[in-house]
């Protein structure tokens, strides 16, 4: 017992520190994976001779499975046991990481990344559920705060770690490093975590809903990624149409389920609907920018991978340091004001990314955009969570949080596909305009035939005296595509601010 009526700390719970260690390390597998892989993509594309579309699928296959099965993963843990499902998810993630690391080509890597996403969908919901089951009312808040702080630190370290591994070892080590972490998590889970279930979780699991969501999103994303290639244009339009039909079918099926994966009744709350629309637009802007920025840094500006990872640090550190402060803002002024101001500032940050040219130091080009974007997101994140959790009855706060998490993941999934079309079209238009009249016809044909590779066009067959000029032309063409991405991201962020102003109460 704790004297003086003080609430117990996590350490008072038997094995509490070890439980926290298991859940923090387990969650970090997924959180780190997102930030590490983005930095490695330009090098990965070159080493595996991947097309731009395949490079997109390295991220999209992971996010697709994670988005589609995240809610099912939480329900599965409630029914079969959180410890069991968490451990299975970690095991699948470890095996998939090994397969990613030994992948001989891009297609195998894409399949292994999809398996990673499914494993993450099982382990992520279980981490917080295990904490809630192990810590009493007085210690739970502190335990969750500890979990949040450490997962934020691991997420922040992801870009630097990924850049360092890619530069000094191999891109394969960004996957291999998951394996010892997963082994430690499995040992701690078996040793210290007690099994728990939700006795009120009844009814069949919504596997049909998850399958329809995965198939619909998958067809939609496939169509969008394939669209820039003229040879696949007809197939891509058909895939987009099929994806739309499957997603409509998903909505209809969810209305008839007694235990749906996505409880549509939650969206009857105007505040919950507004918060998720805000999430969709704001995280679409963020997901698209963070995907294309490393290509700009490494492929165009000539950054080393480690430097490209470090370039993201101001954004991540500001987001981490100011999140508690923004939570206090929401407590004092309500969530509506920060959710208008935060996305508006983030929009300015996205706009600033469109201004730098091809040359210049980091301090004079991308430092200010990263700082402004980090400030805008820091003001937004905690109040957004507050709105999501408070806009539904207390008993449904857990599923509301899971739905919002799935929406954020889906936003990034769709943004990379849609903005990939924009970047490809703008790049091709700019490249053609700059090639013709500036280079010999045989060089123009060689470069134009590889335009679907975007910034990774192979110039090794060109005469040495033409390579610098051609590389400059390719870089300028990609810069135009990146600027289009930044402007669209700014518009999406400002749209989310308008949503806050019109759909959230003071």
Outline of the structure:
With 506 residues, this protein is mostly helical. The chain has helices at 16-47, 52-80, 82-101, 106-134, 137-168, 173-176, 178-192, 207-226, 233-256, 270-300, 305-311, 313-333, 336-353, 362-365, 367-390, 397-435, 441-448, 467-503.
Provide structural commentary.
This protein has 506 residues and is an all-alpha fold. Helix 3 packs antiparallel against helix 4 (106-134), helix 5 (137-168) packs antiparallel against helix 11 (305-311) and helix 13 (336-353) runs antiparallel to helix 15 (367-390). Helices cover 78% and strands 0% of the residues. The chain folds into three domains: 9-194, Growth Hormone, Chain: A (Up-down Bundle), CATH 1.20.1250; 207-258; 266-506, MFS general substrate transporter like domains (Growth Hormone, Chain: A, Up-down Bundle), CATH 1.20.1250.20.
